[in-house]
Structure formats: structure tokens, C-alpha cells
Amino acid sequence: MRARHVAGAVAVAAVAVLGAAACSAGRQAGPQAGPPSSAPPSAGQSASASARDRLRGGLLTQAQLPQGFHLLTAEVNSTTTAAPHGPASTVAIASMPCSELGVESFMTHHAPPLEDVAVGMEQVPEQTSEQAADDGWFGQEALDRYAPGRAAEVMDAIRAAAQRCPSYANALDSSTTTQETVSVTAADVPADDSLVLRIASALPDDPEPYVSEQAFVREGDVILMVQKLVAKKPRAGVEAVLPAAVAAYRAATAH
Known about the structure:
Layout: H1 3-29, H2 43-57, E1 70-71, E2 80-82, H3 106-110, E3 115-123, E4 137-145, H4 150-164, E5 167-171, E6 177-185, E7 193-202, E8 210-219, E9 222-231, H5 242-252
Antiparallel strand pairs: 1-3, 2-3, 3-4, 4-9, 5-6, 6-7, 7-8, 8-9
């Protein structure tokens, strides 16, 4: 696969991830487009809105990002969305197909949170005279709030799914199958629980794999996720953003 084809595939995947988040945000905002209701919000509605605002305030801002990174507010606009985004699966994370580990939406599909927020970010590739020296950094941060005790269960389920699927084949189309290798480590940040999920995808006759990463950090009933989309020549992994994301969330929820 030539470099420009890979870049195109990465771009398509990135647009799909961020587009899905933007569409879910749009669905949340849609009903507000009509005439405003004269009835004041109920206490339950006010409490829910307050919780969403606090969650949104915990996302990274441009000022909090590491040097060289930029928010992608045109694609994902730090918008609070009500969850779930669609029909929930009846299959639990621990039992879902191995191939879904590499799908950005597996948490909201198999374990829908009460509320979630997301923001996209990137670090542009370094250029040489011929082509990009690396694939840059493209991904997103998400905060998912669960009912009391549920976030710990979701973390255990993600870990169990990854341990069940250390290696598996994934059919991209009728003629191409990748071999996926999964590794799980703890994130290098203090937290109630954490894990980093790395998936290396090897194409036939290509010795250098493509790697995608997702870091999950649990803070009480909230799971903070930083996802870095697939890259073959990464300049940095999720660790380039994760400490700043955790610090931003803790600063926002300290009071």
C-alpha cells in the first residue's frame, strides 16, 4: 500500500470518527431549533444540564494541549451530547467480536454512558522534500459519565475483551485480511483505574504494521478516553496527550 493511499485511508477513518461525534452532537441540538418552550425546565432537566456542563468543562482546551497540537473544532466542537447515540447492543463488551476492539464507538454501542462529550485534535505530520516524515497525530478525547459503579464494570469488560483477543484476523474486503495483535498495559498516570489498548495491524507482505491506540482512565464514575487513529510512522502515541487530558479534567472537577 503506497503512502498516499495509506494517508487517504487514515483520513477517511478520521472523518468517520469525528463525523459520527459531530452527527450525535447535531441530534442533541436538533430539537432546540424550534420555538422555545414557555415552560421552565424541571429540576431533573436542570440537574442533567448541569452535569453535562461540568463534563464538557473537563475537556482539553487549546491552551491546555501540548505544544504542536491543535483542536479540531470544525469537526468535533466540544459539544455535550446525550447518550446513547443509537440503539444499544445486547452484546456486552466482554463478549463482543474481537474485530470491534478497533472500532471507536464500541463503548457507546455496547456500554452506553449516561452522558458523553468529545473533542478532536491533531498534530500535523512533519514534512520532508519528498513526503511526510511521519503520520502525525490524529484522534480525539472523550469523557463518558456512567451510573455509580458502572464505570468500573466497563473498565473490567474492556480489559477482559482485550485479554480474550490477543490476536485475530480482520477482513477488510473480499481480498485483503489483516492480522491484528492486541496489547494491554496500564497508563502512566495515577488514577482509579487505567489501561492503554494498542492494536497493531499487519497487512499481507508488509512487515511494518499500522498501530492504533486507545487510553482509558477512570476517575470515579467517568471514563476519560484518548484515542489515536491508525498510523504507520507515529511521531508519538496517546501518551503525548493523556497527561494533559487527565490534568485538565481534574482541574475542572476539583471544586
